[in-house]
Every structure is written in structure tokens, then in C-alpha cells.
Amino acid sequence: MPIAEKTVEKAESGRALLARPELVLNQREASWVNDTVCAVVEKPAPLWWWVAAGAFGLLAAAVPLVVVYFISTGLGVWGLQSPVFWGVAILNFVFWIEIGHAGTLISAILLFTRQRWRNSVNRAAEAMTIFAVLCAAVFPLFHIGRQWMFWYMVPVPESYAIWQNFRAPLLWDEFAVGTYFTVSCLFWYFGLLPDIASLRDRATKLWKKRLYHVLCWGWTGSLRAWRHYEAGYLCIAGVVSVLVISVASVVSTDFATTVLPGWHTTIFPPDFITGAIFSGFAMIVTLMVPLRAAYPGLKDMITGKHLDNMAKVLLATGSLVGYSYLIELFMAWYGANPYERYTFWNRITGPDRSTYFAMFGFNVILPQIFWFRFCRSHPWILWTSSVLINVGMWFERYSIIVVSLERDFLPASWRHYLPTWVDWGLFFGSVGLFFFLFLLFLRVLPSISVAEIKTLLAKPKRQRTLEVAAQEYGFPPGKEIYGLGAEFSSEEELRRASEETRKKGYVWWDAYAPYPIHGMERAMRLSKSRVSFFVLMGGLLGLFIGIAMVTATSIPRPQLLQSLTTGQLQGLFYATVVQGKPYFSLPAFVPVLLELTILFAAFSGFLAVVFLARLPRPHHPVWNWGELSRRATDDGLFLVIEARDPAFSPAESRKFLESLGGRRLTFIPR
Questions:
Q1: Tens digit of each residue's pLDDT (9 = 90 or more) over 294-305
Q2: Which residues span the membrane (predicted)?
């Protein structure tokens, strides 16, 4: 065999070995993705869904029942007692917040880093974030005791003659978690817009069609709109990626800024971030494995490759969590602080030592099974391990919060903490609430991102029997022409047709597709989207508003006239004096400023896409073409030349589109 042929054969065999596994199996088409994902919403709920929803709904009912009981009775029904004033309530708050972080991580950071395998799991992960934060919000809201005074934490100026303390980590927590929940809802809803449009075009009942039309802001699938949509999605993902890190860091600061042994440690911020990724991915596996088992069609979109990647993430983050545990033990010994040393010794040998060993076993030792491919590829081994990992993460919070508080500096005040049935009822009720909300989500919205899955499909040229294509499309008499539309068989044909249409001199025209097609911006000669500029301006606006707020509430308030006469405006509101600390402390204000920057940037990105894509659209003339209105969000690729274009001619434009391979040429009425 000649050397050249051997070289080609080796190269081809090497490429075969290095070929990446498909992320959508069995060469599925775009219409199949629509039918499979939307069928979960459109078809009647199966029996298993009713059983599961009933069971978790009854469990979730424990939340209002327990809340009414302990509010009417008093917080004494909880297990709280000196010195443990932070018990299971705050433990569960941290547990659910950490789980919620991975949803944004998958959808934001993995999008930001262009990880294609995220497309199958990001929608459920985003929903998981919202439900986990809702469960988490229950605990601090009722842990404060006087729930009707919660509005005191809202920064309303001079409502009760004093401002909030923006130096306090608990207020940072309010800003961080509130911003996280708001931006996560916005990010989740933003990604749903094209998929809600798919439900609209498939709806058979008028009220559903109108409802979905309002919810998707009249999305048309125009590639000009897709350009702004992708830019906005990426910008929001960028700011949300920072938000994930900031929220975990702020939650950890609640503990790290204290002087309590076991809490006062600088490793908590990175440790909490790693733990959030670890527990969040475990919960995603807990949700996705039963989901793909309940709906067999989803197995082609949630493949073994997805499970393998998530198992590898669990292995990596579990190893990092184990490293953090060992560093904590080492620093307690090396630091020579007798109180810190005893705290960790008590965790290992004290009355709650079982929680420490369960934490170490489930979080560090168990994930090591994912070194083996069999364990990564077997769904139910992965699922069982994920459930146990979250059990271990709950024990980690118990060891950090409760065990550290049980034995403080004074042995005479030591007391063993025992949760009551009220504590357990609220926790298991929150578990039921989480899964009940997720089951409701499956019935009302697509659980997998339809538009993003279509970008992963192999895109062969569709060969269909088009009886309608052979017919001559005339224009209804007595109606004004909006334009001429044509369907194309593949992305390549649509891209070439767009380029030729531009070269021909047409100005008023657009292309429509159910997903973004990269490279069309060059074919259509579209300028760069300006969404990022609006995101930057919105972020700066939020930053300046934050600086004005913390400055106005921190500097002493003299007489305004005296300030103006001296040329030094020293403040307009009441000053917040905190233990003699400086009035203006920029490091202490960073969390508040960061959260406001992210909040305004995210909303600016969303509104910029709405404005630049010319949404909402109550009606668009292209929907008068039934074929486009049905399939522009399904599997159709269309190009429409508007009649107002100076170069438009019914006969010449029709002949031009036919020469480019256009099919189903149709004059669209206005």
C-alpha cells in the first residue's frame, strides 16, 4: 500500500476514535424534537404523575400546617435553645440555597463556556433553581420570629427614622438571595421564549394560543431577532455566572465573619461554592434519571454522554469537597487554637460523630466510584449515589451549624440539640414542595429546551413528498400583498439564498428558522448586536444607584444649608453608626453594589432584546402564511421578501427564489 494511502487510512481511523458521542441519538429531526418534548405538556398526565403529585402534594401541605402551628404557638416548639439559636431552620436554608446554585451554573456558566451537552439539562436545572430558592426562603422568613416586621429589611428611606445596616452580612444575604432569585427567574423565562412560541403554534384551543402568544411576546423566529436573542442570552449568562459565585460567597460570609470556632475560617467561600456545585449537580441527576425513564423518548436527548459528564463533575467536585475537609482538619491542628482544635475533635468523637462520618462517607468516599465507567454509565447507580450525596451534604450543614454551636467557649452552657417534630415537618414539607413544584412544571412548560436541542441535530437535507409544492400559488384577489415567501430544505440552502438575496439588492427581507443558525449574520450582512452595550449601561446604572444609596445612608447628616455654604454636602439621610466603624466602608458595601449591578444588567439585557427584536408583536403578516406560522418554530426554514422592497416584482422575485431552490412559493397577504 502506498505511503499516502496509509497516511489517509490512519488519519481516518484516528478521527473515528476521536469522534465525539452524539448528544442526540438516532438521527432525529427537528419535528421529532417538537413532538416529543411538547407531548409531555400536551398529552394527558400519566398515572404515575398523579400518584407522585398526590404524594408530594400531601407532603408539601405540611409546610403551611406547621407554619400556622408554630406561629400561633411560638418558636419554643422548635428545638432551639441556648447555645443553639441557629438550628435546622438555617441549616435547611443553606442546604436549599446551595442546591439552587447548580441550576444557574449549568445554564449560565456552561453556556458561557460553550458546553454543548448543557442543552438537554439546562431547562430542568433552571426550574430547579427557582423551586430550591422558594423552599429556602421559607426558613429565614419564619426563623426571624416576628414575620410581620420583615419589611424592616427593605431599604425604604426614613420610614422608621433609621436605615438598614449595609455592613451586615445578613443584609448582604438578603440582597444576594433576592437578586439571585429575580435574575434566575428572568434567565429561565428568557430561555423559554422560543419554546413557548412552539407551544403557541401547536395549540388547538384558542385560549391557549392567545395565552402562549402573550407569554412569548409574539416571537416569530426571525433570524434578525435570533441575533439579538443570542447576544442577550450570552450577556445575561455572563452576569449570572458572577452571581453564582457571589451568592455562595455571601452565604458563607454569614459564618466566616463570626469568631465562633468551626465557623471563623477563610476556606468557607470556596468551600461553599464547590459544595453548591456538588449538591446541585446531584439534585439534577436525581431529577433527570427518573424523567428520562418516565418518558422513553427523552432518552435520545438525555443520553449516556450527559450522565457521564455529570458523574465526572460529581467526581471532581466531591474530590474538592474532600480536600476542603482535610484542609479544615489540618488548619485546626496547625493553628494551635485549643477551641478550634476541640471543635473538630468534637465533630469526630462527640455525640454527633455519626453525622460527621456520614458526611465524609457520602461526600468524599462515595463519589470515587465514578472513576469506573460502569458506575458513570449506569443510570440507577448514578441516581442512588446522587440521593446519598445530598443526604451527605445535609449532614455537612448539620455538622457545621449545629455541632459547632452545641459546645462553645463555656462548658457550663453546653447542651445537646434535638430537632422537634416541627423542625422535621418543615424540612420534609419543603422536600415535598420542591418535587411537587417540579412535577407541576413538567405539565405546563417544556422540560427540555426545544430550540437549543435543534442546534445539536445532524442537519441532512430533508427529502419530503411535497404535493403542495407542485401546485401554483396564486394570490387572493382583493388583498394587499405583504411579500413573497419560500421554504428551503437545509441550512446551507437558506444561507446561500440569503447571501444571493442580499447581493441581488433586496433590502426589505428576512429569514425565519426554529433555532439560531450561525453564519447567517455574514450571509445577511447584519451588524453586531448592541445588546451588550445596554447590558453595560444597565450595570453601571445599578452600580451608581448602589453607591448613592450606601453613601447617602452612611455619612452624617448636618444641616443642609450649612453643608451647602461650606461647599461640603455631607449627607441627606440618617447616618448608621455601627460600633464606631467608619461611616463609609467600601469593602463592606461591595456585596450590595455587586448585586445591584447584576440585577440592573440582567434586566437591561432582557429589555434590550425585546426592544431590538421589536417585541412584543401582537400580529405579524408572515403568520398569514399557514405553512410558516405552523413550522417556523418546528422544522421549517423560510425566506420572505417584502413587497415594499424597491426591487420587488411578483414575477421576477418568484423566478429568483425558484432559481435558488425555494419551494412552496407563496404570496403572503397583509
A1: 988 888 888 888
A2: 47-72, 84-112, 124-144, 175-199, 231-252, 272-293, 313-336, 356-374, 381-404, 424-445, 531-555, 588-613
